[in-house]
């Protein structure tokens, strides 16, 4: 059951990329995800295979070791991840590769030459360190500090709920470099995990997305070169928004694809399961519920595609419309997958059925990359 719509967004080359990536996920993720769940992590061999196939650092040009894909390739990755059942466990870890493009678009030439090739091969993996114990979506409240000392930044602070925290080789970390300026005093700095004073904390256990390596880390007088700064000093929010706007298209795309997978699974299940002498799909209640879901899926797809077309036309993601997508699509996903679990009956609560895994993973999507509440606040400011 492939994820497919008749859409004018994608060229023939994009569809070839989609076919290749779908095959890769089926062979290298879907076939092994239960083994990984038992082991508690994605093996390094997966990332190296992904790099070899050209599925990492997708938007990084070939001159820097990347495959040179465009934004639509990143959208395809999100859609295919969302549709595959393995994506319910691995999507945050895989989407975390987008940090490669954040670094590429904001960093110095020296940083690009150093990190892009090894990120593209899967040899080195990055995490994105923003959230702290006392600050979530309110980035201005972060306490991690970075002070100049000669030719180095000296960094102190702690981060939590960080994807890939347990396994990443380096992190791009949000630090206060001018505490008096709020969000205008934040800088983004690369911190390698093998630096003295860098300490990994707990690997956090979640209700879903179990293979994202979510955890904590702390920095105690960690010294990194001044050249590890990504973007301009005190202009870190621009770097952060580069990633967040991309996430606010990526995660709604995943939410839509996961909803579609749950819908497809439910149509198939209700056609084959009988109750009171007839297929479940033949009950009016079932058909009306499915009709509502199909309608919401069509509306959500249209909005997302229009948002992506705007990006293609202007070269920039509209922050307000990205926030609107981040509100509506994950909440739509919650409604749809909840109904899909219900129509499966007791089977929907069993982990062997795809809707069970999709359901637990979906709950994260209303929180990740900015909560629905913060998104509403952002949109309300434009009214």
Which descriptors would you attach to this protein?
Butyryl-CoA Dehydrogenase, subunit A, domain 2; alpha+beta; four-stranded mixed sheet; 3 domains; 383 residues; Butyryl-Coa Dehydrogenase, subunit A, domain 1; 12 helices; Butyryl-CoA Dehydrogenase, subunit A, domain 3
Number of strands: 10
- The CATH topology assignment of the largest domain is Butyryl-CoA Dehydrogenase, subunit A, domain 3
From the 3D coordinates, which CATH architecture of the largest domain would you assign?
Up-down Bundle
Content of β-strand: 5-15%
Q: What is the rounded Rg?
A: 21 Å
Q: Would you identify the regions where 5 or more consecutive residues have pLDDT less than 50?
A: none
Mean pLDDT figure: 92
Domain count: 3
What is the SS-derived class? alpha+beta
Structure write-up:
The chain is of the alpha+beta class and 383 residues long. The chain has 3 domains: 12-120, Butyryl-Coa Dehydrogenase, subunit A, domain 1 (Orthogonal Bundle), CATH 1.10.540; 126-234, Butyryl-CoA Dehydrogenase, subunit A, domain 2, CATH 2.40.110; 237-380, Butyryl-CoA Dehydrogenase, subunit A, domain 3 (Up-down Bundle), CATH 1.20.140. Helices cover 49% and strands 15% of the residues. The protein is built from 12 helices and 10 strands. The protein has helices spanning 12-30, 33-39, 44-52, 71-83, 87-95, 99-106, 109-120, 236-272, 284-314, 319-344, 354-362, 372-380; strands at 126-129, 145-149, 152-162, 170-176, 186-192, 198-203, 215-225, 229-230, 274-275, 278-279. The strands form 3 sheets. Strands 1-4-5-8 form a 4-stranded mixed β-sheet. A 4-stranded antiparallel β-sheet has the order 2-3-7-6, with no helix packed on it. Strands 9-10 form a two-stranded antiparallel ribbon. Strand 2 and strand 3 (152-162) form a beta hairpin. Helix 1 runs parallel beside helix 4 (71-83) and helix 10 packs antiparallel against helix 11 (354-362). The chain is globular.
